[in-house]
Design a protein that fits this description.
Layout (H helix, E strand, L loop, with lengths): L4 E3 L3 H7 L4 E3 L5 E4 L4 E8 L2 E9 L17 E3 L10 H6 L1 E6 L1 E6 L6 E6 L6 E10 L9 E10 L10 E3 L1 E2 L4 H5 L5 H10 L6 E4 L19
Parallel strand pairs: 2-5, 5-11, 6-11
Antiparallel strand pairs: 1-3, 1-8, 4-5, 4-7, 7-10, 8-9, 9-14, 10-11, 10-13, 11-12
């Protein structure tokens, strides 16, 4: 799974790595991104790639209670096209979620060591995500924009830490992933073959266990 990640790049840095045409978000460095927090994601809207803000934890448009999103921070890529909570978003509402790395925990319960996982060159990357708009069937005062991160089997580089990892897309897949016209078959092909598998990690402070801690010190090697 992916339950905590890091995103600290400013807008100019993100524009150097991602296809962004329009910005409807305010970026704040976050070294301890947790579920239900507001995060930036890139979506395809009106023939533009728009960077906007979403709440992490997808709320299906048909949900009666938005708290369901607290359990929807991840979507298994193997079943995302068939699960009622995700299948509509998988077909029509896909996004890129910029990140600089993510956390996992290694060891036995009660004594787990957090590790920070990145690309070998520590450049930013894009999680494969889905997004939704929830408006309580037209009764909400304002629509709620939410998102989730796809996961897959862990690659050889980190499988000793956890058996799952987020789907990290290669840049050549960004365009087709966000294109609403991309077929389900092509999307499944992207998930299986156009992803970053070579990752590195380092142990970091257990201060990351507490979401109120949020500073660059969290990603320093412990």
């Amino acid at each position: 799974m992916c339950g905590r990640f890091v995103g600290y790049r400013d807008l100019e840095a993100l524009k150097a790595h991602f296809p962004i045409d329009r910005v409807d978000a305010t970026l704040t460095p976050n070294y301890n991104v947790a579920p239900t927090q507001m995060i930036p994601a890139i979506v395809r809207q009106d023939d533009e790639n728009v960077l906007r803000t979403f709440r992490w934890g997808l709320v299906p448009f048909w949900a009666d209670d938005p708290s369901i999103g607290n359990r929807m921070i991840n979507a298994r890529s193997e079943t995302v096209d068939s699960k009622p909570s995700f299948r509509n978003a998988f077909k029509k509402r896909r996004c890129l979620i910029p990140a600089d790395g993510f956390y996992e925990w290694k060891g036995t319960k009660g004594n787990k060591q957090p590790v920070f996982i990145t690309l070998p060159d520590e450049k930013p990357f894009g999680f494969a995500g889905l997004w939704e708009i929830w408006d309580d069937k037209g009764k909400a005062e304002e629509p709620l924009y939410t998102c989730t991160i796809l996961t897959t089997d862990a690659s050889d580089s980190i499988k000793d830490i956890h058996d799952r990892m987020p789907v990290i897309l290669t840049p050549d897949a960004f365009k087709d992933w966000m294109d609403e016209s991309t077929s389900d078959g092509a999307l499944k092909e992207i998930i299986s073959t156009h992803t970053q598998k070579d990752l590195v990690f380092r142990p970091v402070s257990k201060a990351v266990n507490f979401v109120q801690n949020n500073s660059p010190d969290l990603i320093k090697e412990a």
